[in-house]
Amino acid sequence: MRKIIMRLTGIEYIQPRLPIYFSPVVRRAVTVLTTYPGRLTGSSKCFAMTDWYRLEILPTKSASTQKQRKYSLPRLMTAFGDLIPHELTPSMIYKYMDRVKKIKSEKWANTDLECLSHALSCAVRWGTIDRNPVIGQVRKFSTKGRKHKVRDEDLFSFAELIPRKWQLYISLKLCTRGRRKGELLRIKLTDCTDDGIEFRNNKNPDDIYLIEWTQNLKLIVNEIRSLPPRRIGSAYLFLNRHGKPYINESTGETSGFDSMWQRWMKKAEEKGVRRFTENDLRKKAIEGESLQRAQELLRHTTAQTTKKHYSIRDRIST
Predict the structure, then answer these.
(1) 291: Cβ–Cβ under 8 A, 6 or more apart, which residues?
(2) Rounded distance, CA 90 to CA 282, Å?
(3) How do 196-200 and 11-15 pair as beta strands?
(4) pLDDT tens-digit profile of 255-266?
(5) In the predicted model, is pLDDT for residue 36 greater than 80?
(6) Cα separation of 285 and 297, whole Å?
(7) Which is more confidently placed, 173 or 144?
(8) Angle 90-103/106-126 helices, nearest 10 degrees?
């Protein structure tokens, strides 16, 4: 047993710990056997709820979500672990968010809130609590989306510096109307069908859609395929010099691509180019579209998400 002072809410509590000599396998087995949803009751503590969420719910999320919430869960367990879920109040959660904002950032406070809210919603489904105290009571910190506009002259100057493969990457991103980086780097030869290119939405794996061929799109893809190394079977469209993809499918990380982009952007800045990110090209790809059409093209679930990143003042035509 270890005594922990809950500084964020002014509550002092005891957080149980398994003996240190327990192996990780035994520790996980004990946790699962004692906290599966059938045994989560109204008196179960948040520690049991969040640990079950970590073991059973989190693995079903995308790689990027898992990575974020693996940082959030330990903080939430430390702060609220020995409380019973129905004891959580909006004021406690707000104090926690203020503390995380001060120590980390508003972004991390919002991420922790999303994680806590989803865990509590799962607890409602399991019958542990009757209602989620976050929904309708606690609001995230308001953050402004990035609305940097990529100028044509900056894009052309940057494209002149980079290798042909990455010029074609930018052309493909614009031609497919702003597909996400992960979606482009995941393209395989088998995704290039007779009718077009099949994409899977990074944010919603169940959303599979087709971008139909155009003359320009075919020319771009054919030229990428002609670049070394040779591609056969179900190979990825974008490969490094060792024949490996630029994306790690298990984690979703694109470290090789990110390093390349930063390296060339630094050189471009030295020549007077105003810095822009790869994601800024998503907005560039839908310039001139109405908000509703931009939402459809970017595959956003709601118009609110599109508004956050897309200023209606940048609309050229309707």
Answers:
(1) 303, 306, 307, 310, 312, 315
(2) 37
(3) unpaired
(4) 999 999 999 999
(5) no
(6) 9
(7) 173
(8) 150
| Annotated domain spans of the chain | 2-126, 152-285
**How many Cα atoms are found within 13 Å in the side-chain-facing hemisphere of 13?**
20
Q: Residue 136 region, left (φ>0) first, then alpha (ψ -120 to 50), else beta? A: left
The pTM of this model reads: 0.70
- Calculate what percentage of the chain has a pLDDT beyond 70: 82
The CATH number of the structural domain formed by 152-285 is: 1.10.443.10
Q: Has residue 174 got a pLDDT over 70?
A: yes
CB atoms within 10 A of CB 299: 19
Looking at the DSSP bridge assignments, the partners of residue 197 are: 192, 211
Helices marked H in 188-254: 215-226
Q: What is the pLDDT of residues 65-80, one digit of tens each?
A: 888 899 999 999 999 9
H/E run at residue 198: strand 196-200
